Amino acid sequence: MSLSASPAIPPPAVSFRQAARFWLKLGLISFGGPAGQIALMHTELVDRRGWISEPHFLHALNFCMVLPGPEAQQLATYLGWLMHGNRGGLVAGVLFVLPSLVLIAALAWLYLAFGQLPLLAAVFYGIKPAVVAVVLFAAWRIGRRALGSPLHVALAVGAFVALEWLRVPFPLIVLGAACIGLLAGQRWLAQMGVPTAPRSGPAPAEASSRLPWGQGVRVCALGALLWLLPMAALVAGTGLASTWTTMGWFFTKAALLSFGGAYAVLPYVYQGAVERYGWISPAQMLDGLALGESTPGPLIMIVAFVGFIGSYTEAAFGPAYRPLAGAVGAAIATWFTFLPSFVFILAGAPLVEASRRGPAFTAPLLAISAAVVGVMLDLAAFFAAHVLFPAGLSAGPDGIAVMIALAAALGLFRFRWSPLTVLGGGALLGVAASVLRA
């Protein structure tokens, strides 16, 4: 299967086992929220391994940015589908989430049983500043390719300003960039970098010149069945008004409303889980957010923390089996949150790949790609403000965190270390700083 950007140079053959090992590894070390996770995928799959071409990566990223749900998990599913079809997409998406689910459930149990864990806090303390550098490095690398014209640069700057100072909702930024790309692409195809003729050369085996509507319909039907069967089982086994049935419906709505990433849907989750249903306290919700930001996997995995805490407290299986009830709640929250994302990708990816040969669809996605650079810079600024200035800008920076961030940036930009090496080094420095303080 050829995925290279150049028709003359096919990419290396990737076995399904090789890809599965990579997705499992990614699921175990994907720190840094969506921007950091996208950076890891770009560095590992495009730059270092050459399994995915730059045009395919950006095309997939642009599509995932306009969908509700976790962008990084959807991107992993899309890229897995590109390499090995539906089974590749399923394995990539599941392995991106599964390690995080197990870790969040285990940490939620330890959190309830023993409180704060100093060693884990020290590891996360060192990883967070390194993530700031990884996100900036990713924005720089993607920006070099995506900002190919003055219009693209203007879109990136505009997206950053709109998010950082004007507080424009993320979906409006994506929609605006797409509209600008559509209008500009009709008049300035060369400036936008859109080919005026259909692309030649190899494409993924899943893509064809015809729009594969049949697969989309089949995937949607299967997705509906996979939603209905567990929901029917919950209603039959626990009742229509039970906590687990309510969680299934609530997290389905959260998944469909989460345009703009996890931060956009967190207020909705907070309102429902804390204020309406009382599954979790405000203090526990804040601790869960900190846990989600510090562990690998999508930030929206905070839903697993909410599901575990709420189910553990209710003790549906009796006091002696609270951890089991918590694990079931975490699994329910995760299933209903991520199922729509698999349906969106496996149904939509063939249509999107088939559209790559048409400039009318490519121009808006190229514009979105430029806006994504501004979005990543805004995320980096947000993350840096909270990590490097934990007590607020007026209180000054955390000197150790700043030094870790600078060391990580030096390793990435100057010595070309991999993001995995940088994150591992950050974790060691965090532990060392904790020991020195003690």
Description:
The chain is mainly alpha-helical and 438 residues long. It has one domain. It is built from 17 helices and no strands. Helix 4 runs antiparallel to helix 14 and helix 16 packs antiparallel against helix 17. The termini are far apart. The N terminus is likely disordered.
Helix fraction by DSSP (H/I, runs of at least 4): over 70%
How many H/I helices? 17
Distance between the termini: 55 Å
Tell me the β content: under 5%
The tally of domains stands at: 1
Q: What shape does the CA trace take?
A: globular
Mean pLDDT: 81
User: Structural class of the secondary structure composition?
Assistant: mainly alpha
Order of helices and strands: HHHHHHHHHHHHHHHHH
Radius of gyration: 22 Å
Number of β-strand runs: 0
Instruction: Detail the poorly predicted runs.
Output: 1-10, 191-209
Q: Biggest β-sheet, characterized?
A: none
For the structure shown, list the relevant keywords.
17 helices; mainly alpha; disordered N terminus
